[in-house]
Each structure stands twice: as structure tokens, then as C-alpha cells.
Specification:
Helices cover 29% and strands 14% of the residues. By secondary structure, the protein is of the alpha/beta class. The radius of gyration is 18 Å and the shape is globular.
Length: 269
């Protein structure tokens, strides 16, 4: 059963993936978490709504509605760390970004992690693989845009305030330099802070699918949440999540970023 998997098919050479916007937790798991709020705290809030305009441009979107606390669809399925030596969360996280325990008691063992991988991780990535193959059959180049967001300040994960736009290409390995440059230019024109391959160089999705030599160019965008919603100094159940801004400040720039991805894929960059 994949009722939790949402796929919108377009014909343009662009797939936008949403691995972390989900908040659904299977009933048999919810009672094991320390609290429903903690289990949903680190979601990429409202990102699928923020990028809804991409579908009108012909983009394909793939989204899992399952919470990343159940399984993180942007982690290496082997369990290997994507950022060795740095604090991060795993395939089935046991703590929040701030280090708070997610479970009341026992955490998932390897057998349970494997069950969740088969049930949720595999179908999500099978959908991405299928959509990329479908579009690659009709376009010489396809862009996979992995859409994310995170709170601007999380001392356990990074020092200071995160730039507004964090572009990840794993050091240039996952896409043609022209695509990265076009996205950078769109971000630079906003006058807001941006960085290429900084703290967030691209997760498993970007690194796994990015094969520019085969016409698939993957790029990750990690947004600092302050650009589209009110961000409290300290999230609590009373103030988090805040609603999506009526007129998100960064929306015009995101439109330019997506336009740059489409222009690249269509050979106009």
C-alpha cells in the first residue's frame, strides 16, 4: 500500500522531490515516540506548498507523506553517514536535530529498520527512479531538484546562522557546472545569502541520482526556514510550526531558481 506516496506527473525535464515534508506516523509507531510533536518537529515544513508552482510549469513532483522520524528517505540506506565527523541523524532517527530522544523506550533494531526501509524508503525511491527514466526517455537532460528546509540556527548541527539558500552538488559531482552556476546566479540576484556546497552538500538522493554523464543532473536546495515562515528563537509546541507566510519573501527567487533548472535542462543555459 502506497497511499502515503504522492506523485504528480508532468512532461517537463524536471523532477522535484520532497523527502522530508511528511508528518504521517503509523498508529502502531506513534505511541512509541516520546511525543507526537517531537516526532514531527524536524519536518521540512510547508516546502511542498512553497514549490506548488513548479507543477504548473510541467514539473513532476514526488513526495512521501511519512515523517522523517519514521524513516529518512534522504539517508544512505546502508546506514553510512553522509557527513562523517559531523552531527547528523540516521536512516531511522533516534533523536531530534537538537539531540532530544525521540523514543520513550527501545529504539528500532536492525530488523525493524529493514522493515521500514522496505515499506517506505524503497517505494519512494522506486518512484523517483521511474519518473527520471520516463522523462530521460524523451529529454536529453533531466534535472532532479531535491527540495529541503531547516531552521536557521541549530548549534548542534552548524555554527551561527545558515545562509538563506544552501545549494548542494557534492562538490560538483552531481550536476553540470552550468546548472550550479545558473542556480547560484538566481540566488545571488535576490541579495540574500547563499552558499554552494557548504554545510549541506547534498544528501543521498542528490548523490545517488546525480549522473551528469548520463543526462541526469541532481541538485539539492536547503532553505533557511526564515525566508518563508516566522521562525521562533526556540521552537515549542505552542509556536511550532508557524504557518506558511501569505507572501513568502523568497518565493520570487525560488521561481527564478526553478526557471533556471528548466532552462538548463532544455538547453537554454
Amino acid at each position: 500500500m502506497t497511499h502515503w506516496l504522492e506523485i504528480h506527473r508532468g512532461e517537463a525535464p524536471l523532477v522535484v522531490a520532497f523527502p522530508h515534508t511528511g508528518t504521517k506516523i503509523p498508529p502502531e509507531l506513534e505511541e512509541r515516540f516520546a511525543s507526537p510533536w517531537l516526532a514531527r518537529k524536524d519536518a521540512d515544513w510547508w516546502i511542498d506548498q512553497l514549490y506548488a508552482f513548479a507543477r504548473d510549469l510541467g514539473a513532476t513532483t514526488v513526495r512521501t507523506s511519512i515523517s522523517r522520524s519514521v524513516i529518512d528517505c534522504n539517508r544512505d540506506p546502508s546506514g553510512a553517514s553522509l557527513y562523517p565527523g559531523q552531527a547528523t541523524t540516521g536512516l531511522c532517527p533516534t533523536e531530534t536535530f537538537d539531540g532530544e530522544p525521540l523514543y520513550k523506550g527501545e529504539t528500532p533494531d536492525q530488523a525493524e529498520i529493514e522493515q521500514r526501509r522496505i515499506a517506505y524508503f524503497n517505494p519512494y525511491h522506486a518512484a523517483i527512479t521511474a519518473e527520471l527514466a520516463r522523462l530521460r526517455a524523451i529529454h536529453p537532460h533531466v534535472v532532479l531538484y531535491d527540495a529541503h528546509s531547516i531552521r536557521s540556527q541549530i548549534p548542534r548541527l552548524f555554527a551561527g546562522a545558515l545562509p538563506q539558500f544552501n545549494i548542494g552538488t557534492n562538490g560538483g559531482a552531481t550536476c553540470d557546472p552550468a546548472l550550479a552556476q545558473a542556480v547560484q546566479q538566481a540566488c545571488s540576484a535576490s541579495g540574500l545569502t547563499h552558499v554552494l556546497d557548504g554545510r549541506f552538500r547534498g544528501g543521498w538522493t542528490t548523490r545517488h541520482y546525480g549522473q551528469p554523464q548520463n543526462g541526469i543532473h541532481a541538485i539539492q536546495m536547503e532553505l533557511a526556514i526564515r525566508g518563508y515562515m516566522t521562525e521562533p528563537e526556540q521552537p515549542t509546541p505552542d509556536n511550532w510550526p508557524a504557518p506558511l507566510d501569505i507572501q513568502p519573501a523568497i518565493l520570487p527567487t525560488l521561481r527564478q531558481v526553478i526557471a533556471a533548472c528548466l532552462a538548463f535542462a532544455k538547453g537554454h543555459v
